[in-house]
Design brief:
alpha+beta; five-stranded mixed beta barrel; 7 helices; 10 strands; about 30% helix
């Protein structure tokens, strides 16, 4: 999940070591009858670890953001009036790998016919509480199981790069066609996004189409390279 939030989502290959180390969870204790568990993330030195440089103000970490994203999915899945379209909009941009693991989690809960309650205490002292009913679990599982990812295609896009985040690894390009493309960036490109901010660019973009349950098609964009164009 954290890898999807901080850069280009991948369907294979290893997760970068800094992401693995920043999101390692350790079990500290179990509840009576083993119906629950207390888990902790790794200790964080925000003054030394550049991975959290953007979070100095509120002491949030990439692990906090990853957990928040999971709990956002939990909350969206609850309630009879909630739309599956909103839930799919949250799930699909995370990419095939993240959806596969969410699908595996929900498969286990669905098979057991149970939900869960979760509370997360972030580094900055905030607490997030969510409750996942069996019906909500089943909704997420259904969407994960019935989302089909195509093989990526590469296209060239020219336009204006209007926003960029070197921490989250994403950009927004206003293409010459008028389309606004929100895309992730790979690790090498993310490290020098400032060279392209607020400039006219030519981007090599990988496009993955995703057909969700119900037949709606969405696209995931990942920028592979950027070149500044003369203005």
């Amino acid at each position: 999940m954290a890898q999807s939030l901080t850069g280009r989502p991948t369907s294979s290959a290893s997760i970068p070591r800094d992401i693995r180390e920043a999101t390692t969870l350790s079990a500290a204790a179990t509840f009576p009858s083993s119906f629950g568990v207390v888990i902790y993330g790794p200790p964080v030195d925000v003054e030394e670890d550049s991975l959290f440089a953007e979070y100095f103000g509120d002491l949030r970490t990439v692990l906090d953001d990853a957990v928040d994203t999971v709990l956002d999915i939990v909350d969206l899945s609850e309630g009879a009036g909630q739309s599956n379209e909103l839930l799919a909009e949250q799930l699909v941009p995370l990419g095939q790998r993240a959806m596969k693991h969410i699908g595996a989690l929900t498969a286990g809960l669905t098979d057991a016919g149970v939900g869960l309650r979760a509370s997360w205490h972030s580094q900055g002292g905030q607490t997030r509480l969510s409750q996942w009913s069996p019906a909500g679990v089943q909704r997420v599982h259904y969407l994960c199981e019935h989302s089909e990812f195509t093989q990526p295609e590469t296209v060239t896009v020219t336009g204006w790069l209007g926003s960029a985040s070197s921490f989250h690894g994403n950009v927004e390009i206003r293409a010459d066609s008028g389309e606004r493309i929100r895309a992730s960036t790979d690790e090498e490109l993310t490290s020098h996004l400032e060279r392209h901010f607020n400039k006219r660019v030519e981007a090599e973009v990988e496009v993955t189409k995703v057909r969700s349950a119900g037949g709606r098609e969405r696209r995931i964009y990942s920028v592979l390279s950027l070149r500044n164009l003369p203005t």
